Amino acid sequence: MDKLLSVLKNTPMTAEQKQKLESILSHDAIIDQHMQSLKQEAQNWLVQRNMAKSQRSAYETNYTPDSFLMDRRK
Fold first, then answer.
1. What is the per-residue pLDDT across 7-55, written as a single tens digit (0 to 9) for each?
2. How far apart are the C-alpha atoms of 35 and 41, rounded to whole Å?
3. Cβ(14)–Cβ(22) under 8 Å?
4. Is 12 helix (H, G, I), strand (E, B) or coil?
5. What pLDDT, on the 0 to 100 scale, is given for residue 65?
6. Cα(51)–Cα(43) distance, integer angstroms
7. pLDDT at 67 > cutoff 80
8. Alpha-carbon dihedral 49, 50, 51, 57, rounded to 10 degrees
């Protein structure tokens, strides 16, 4: 970007370059909207994954296989 800005300071843009730049910038809103929708989709997926993970962990046993259960009578 710095190099591009320095070039633009030294030589002004032609009408054709300005037209191409405007054409590229006209797609900016569409690209931004698509990126936001992808971000929201990823965020929803992560939320669903974490919910499924917490539900699954509630039914999994958390014990060591070498442990012993000791009962005492009182």
1. 888 888 889 988 998 998 899 999 999 999 999 999 999 999 999 888 8
2. 10
3. no
4. coil
5. 63
6. 12
7. no
8. 110
Residue 42, both tokens? 């990823």
Dihedral sign of CA atoms 13, 15, 16, 18 in order: positive
Tokens standing for 6? 């320095």
Backbone angles phi, psi at 37, to 5 degrees: -65, -40
- What does the CA dihedral 58, 63, 65, 69 come to, rounded to 10 degrees? -120
Please report which residue ranges of the chain form alpha helices under DSSP H: 2-10, 15-26, 28-59
| Type of residue at 65 | P
